[in-house]
Structure formats: C-alpha cells, structure tokens
Design goal:
It contains 6 helices and 3 strands, in the order E-E-H-H-H-H-E-H-H. The protein is mainly alpha-helical and about 160 residues long. The chain has one domain. It has a 3-stranded antiparallel β-sheet with strand order 1-2-3. The longest helix has about 30 residues.
Length: about 160
C-alpha cells in the first residue's frame, strides 16, 4: 500500500494482555466519523460499499446467499454496532483496551477503509489509486486508515 498517509508514529502498542492506544486529537476527530460513514452504507443509491462489506456468501447460488444473509445478517449488524461502540469508547476516554476490544477496533477501521476505498473506486484502479492520494481526500483517508490498521495489527501480533 505504500507509505502515503500511513501512520509513521506508533499509535498502538502491546502491553501484556492489553493494547495501549495513544490517539491524538486529530486521530480521534477522524475516528468519531466512522459510525456516521458506515450508517450511510446502502442508503446511497448504487453504493459500491455494499458489495465490499456484504459479499455474497455463494456467488453462484443467489438462493443460498439470500438464506445465509437471512440467517446471519442481523448478527453481523449487531456485531458491527458492538465494534463501533468499542471504537467510540476508545475515542472518548479509554486508552488501554483488551485484545478482544482491539480486534473490534480493527474491524471498525477496516469497514470504514473498505467503504471509502469502494466509493473512491480504489479497487477498480489496482495499486494506481495511491498516485491520486494527494488529490482525493477520501483516498488520503483510506491510506491513513490503512496505516492505522497496520499499526494495530503489529501491536496485536507483538
């Protein structure tokens, strides 16, 4: 993904069974926008984010995909809401979170990154989207979220 807009400072570090977050005011200001962003998925006509966040479980079998969505769709929405709650708590006060909470934050960041990337057609241009970062704020946000995500993965892995 390159280093365009990537996190160059350590935001997340592992401390035993916990992850410590050192979010700046700017980090928090951007992260608090994620729930509103994800609330728009499916509301915008022909939203490219739908196909990225809600992939068909069975591409060759629409009936099986519909049944799968019926069985797990509401649980996925509940889980996403819980992930967003953890993210919002992290932006308000909590600086130390459990590994499970860190995984929730990771999922919320990933959903936002995928949503922005899909809407900016980053998947259609392959790696060429990186050359447009300086001209497109949405792609700059994709790169920043990717750096933050990478930093959190490193903390969880270490």
């Amino acid at each position: 993904m390159g280093n365009h807009g990537a996190v160059v400072r350590r935001v997340f570090t592992r401390r035993g069974d916990d992850v410590v977050a050192k979010l700046s005011v700017e980090d928090k200001a951007l992260l608090v926008q994620i729930p509103d962003l994800l609330a728009t998925v499916g509301v915008i006509p022909d939203d490219a984010a739908i196909s990225v966040l809600y992939r068909n479980a069975y591409r060759d079998d629409p009936d099986a995909s519909a049944e799968f969505q019926e069985l797990v769709g509401s649980q996925l929405a509940t889980d996403r809401d819980a992930d967003l709650d953890v993210l919002m708590e992290l932006t308000r006060a909590t600086q130390t979170i459990s590994v499970d909470e860190a995984k929730s934050v990771l999922r919320a960041i990933n959903a936002a990154r995928l949503t922005l990337a899909a809407r900016a057609n980053a998947f259609d241009t392959g790696s060429g989207w990186e050359t447009r970062i300086s001209q497109d704020p949405a792609l700059a946000a994709v790169a920043w979220l990717g750096g933050l995500q990478s930093d959190l993965i490193d903390a969880l892995s270490g």
